[in-house]
Structures are given as C-alpha cells and as structure tokens.
Design a protein that fits this description.
Elements lengths: L1 H15 L3 H18 L1 H16 L1 H5 L5 E7 L5 E9 L13 E5 L2 E3 L2 E5 L4 E8 L6 H17 L5 E7 L3 E3 L7 H9 L10 H13 L4 E7 L11 H10 L4 E5 L6 H10 L3 E4 L4 H12 L3 E9 L7 E10 L2 E10 L7 H4 L2 H39 L2
Parallel strand pairs: 6-7, 6-9, 9-10, 10-11
Antiparallel strand pairs: 1-2, 2-12, 3-4, 3-13, 5-12, 7-8, 13-14
C-alpha cells in the first residue's frame, strides 16, 4: 500500500515537472525500496539487542565475585582458606556454606565449614559550618547529623569534620557516639570561605587508611569557595578506595546539582533535608556500604607429600557465580612429621612387635638347644 501511494505521488509530480522532480522522486523511491529490503536484517539486529538485554543480569555478574586471599597451613591437617566475597552493587549476598564448593587437587571436599568474618565500618561526617548557610539550615543539618549518629550507636567508627575557611577534624575515629554528638552540637558558624572539596579529600584520605566498609556523609548547601582541591580530585580518590559520598542538602538548595553529581559518580546519593531523611541515609548505609565480605573456610586434608596443591573455592548464589584458586604446600620437617600423622607411630609399633616376637623365638630356640646340651652332658657322665 505504501509503495502504491508513493508511485501515484511520483506520477502526479512527473506530470507537473517531468524532468527534475521525477529524478528526485525516483531517488527517494530507490532509497525506500533499499531500506525495505533490509527490514529483515534490522529486525534481526533488534532481536539480538533484546537478547543481550535479557541476559544482561547474568553478564553483569561475570567477574571477580570471590577471591582467595591466603591459604593457612599452620594448623595442619586443618587447612584454613581466607578470602573475600565482593558484592555486586545493589545485590544482597549471604556467606553460607550452601553457596560454596571446595575442590582440592580436582577432588571435591565434602566436609568443610564456612564462616563470615566481622568487618569494621568507618564513616566520616563532614559538616558545613560556613556562613553561606542560613542559621536555620545550619541548625537543621546539625540536628540531622546528630540523629544519624545516635541511630548508628556502636555500629560504625565515626570521625567528624567541620569546614569553612579551614578543615578541622574534631577528634579521631571512634565508636563513642556520645562524644561525637556532643562535638557536633558544639559546632558554630564562622569563616568567610567554604573549603568543601578540601574537606572531602581530607576525609577520603583518612578513611583510605583503614580496611573495611567506608562512607562519607556530607551536610552542606553545596557551595565551595577557596578549595585548592577540585571535584575530580575528590571523585578519583573516593572511587579508588570505594568510598561513596552521601550528601544531605537543605530544601530549595541552589547548588544541589554539583554535589548531586559528586554523590552519583562515587556511588553515593543526594538527600534533601526533609522529615525521615535520617532513616533513609541509615538504610542506604546498611544496604550499600559493604562491598566486600571476608570469609574463612576450614577443612582437613589427607595429603602430606610436600608438593604444592591447588585449592579452588567456587561460589554460586542464584545467577551469580565465580571461582578463585589458592595454592598451599603441605611440607614439614622430619622431626615434626610424627605430630601431623599417625603413620610413623604405626610403623614404629609394628617394628617393635616384630622385634619382640623375634627375640622370643630366639630365646625359645636357645632354651631348647641349651636343654639338649645339658641332657647330652648328663648322659656322658653316667658310667
């Protein structure tokens, strides 16, 4: 139907201008025909693209989910594997035995235990104390910071920074939330500048010194004045050390776009200081702060040949699966070998038993021969 309409239009145009317009229409018709002939190819491409999207969840999970950090043989024959489960973003994973398989030298180990290890969590709370904030918004942000820390009692190591024309750490990383809340409540506004990016860079440097889950909670209006660090410096450092930045801004904040981008790039989030924002931030910390879970696997080995053995740890949780291999050498000095296996005791006991039996046989033979000699001597003495 489409081509019939085009041909009718072309015929009418040719009648009015049989030269130039007819050439143009012929060209357009050829293009349409050629594109139509490729419809099947286009449909095939669309189907392939859709298939890729359908399988995207599985493809996204291909990567370093499990890693073997160390294989400890000091408690031989108990072998201890220490490793990490790296969580894909937004995915909840459990470190349970049912998701693990241990393979030693190509043989699956049936009897082993899996234990998730505790991980320390660190938070830097950065509070804007410059006079660019209105008094009302400053007090509101302080109250939100205090409420967040109170709700996180004992769960996180917290350090508080205030920033205006200088960046000051108000204490050390600590789980003493009572001191942290008092410290925040004592912060006053002053200074003519707002060194926001300097503060964020300082906080990322401090958190990067520690192993575990890390996050920054930034409370500000988004204005920066006087920082010698740039947003890209902060982003680069935060991403390198997996430190998301969760930003809380006052309502109707004119500078929200800049800090929103900063939070998004570092895998954090922007929040507006409205009712219930404290719970929203805490829930986000619980679900997205921990990117790696340390684990420990223990099993007994029967190998003692002194060679290097590959030990593979396989992890499968729904569509998520990965594996990694560690290596261990079960080799011990000869004088301590008996401590690690019963075989020498069995051999030694067998040798002792054989020696005792041999000694008894020799003694019996000797006694029998001795009796015969005594009898012969006695018979010779009789006249």
């Amino acid at each position: 139907m489409l081509f019939q309409c085009v041909r009718i239009c072309m015929y009418n145009i040719k009648k009015s201008n049989p030269e130039g317009k007819g050439i143009i229409i012929n060209f357009l018709l050829n293009v349409i025909m050629k594109n139509t002939m490729n419809r099947q190819l286009i449909c095939a491409v669309i189907i392939v693209v859709c298939a890729l999207f359908l399988y995207a969840p599985v493809m996204l999970f291909a990567g370093p989910i499990v890693s073997v950090e160390r294989v400890d043989v000091h408690s031989y024959p108990d072998i201890i594997i220490k490793g990490m489960i790296h969580k894909p973003e937004g995915i909840q994973l459990a470190v349970d035995r049912e998701y693990f398989t241990v393979v030693e030298d190509g043989t699956s180990i049936k009897d082993f235990t899996v234990k998730a290890l505790d991980i320390d969590k660190y938070i830097a709370v950065c509070i804007d104390s410059s006079k660019s904030l209105s008094k009302k918004n400053f007090l509101k942000l302080k109250k939100i910071a205090v409420n967040i820390i109170k709700k996180c009692t004992g769960q996180y190591n917290v350090i508080v920074y205030r920033f205006n024309d200088e960046v000051i750490a108000l204490g050390m990383l600590s789980k003493n939330t009572h001191n942290d809340t008092e410290t925040i409540e004592s912060i006053q506004q002053h200074g003519k500048r707002t060194k926001l990016y300097n503060c964020l860079f300082t906080a990322t440097e401090e958190l990067a010194r520690h192993d575990g889950g890390k996050a920054i909670i930034l409370l500000t209006d988004g204005k920066d004045e006087g920082s010698f660090m740039f947003p890209d410096d902060v982003v680069s450092n935060a991403r390198e050390h997996a430190i998301p930045i969760y930003t809380i801004v006052p309502e109707r904040c004119s500078k929200a776009a800049a800090v929103s981008r900063l939070s998004k790039i570092t895998k954090g989030k922007l929040f507006v200081a409205t009712a219930g924002v404290e719970d929203a931030v805490i829930n986000m910390l619980k679900t997205r702060m921990i990117y790696a879970i340390p684990f420990e696997i223990t099993f007994k080995t029967k190998k003692h040949d002194g060679t290097i053995h590959p030990i593979e740890v396989q992890f499968k949780h729904g569509t998520i699966q990965d594996n990694d291999t560690g290596y261990a050498q079960y080799s011990f000095p000869k004088n301590t070998y008996a401590i690690h296996t019963d075989l020498p005791f069995v051999v030694l006991a067998g040798i002792v038993v054989l020696l005792v039996i041999a000694l008894v046989i020799v003694m019996l033979v000797f006694i029998n021969k001795w009796k015969q000699i005594v009898e012969l001597i006695s018979m010779q003495r009789i006249p």
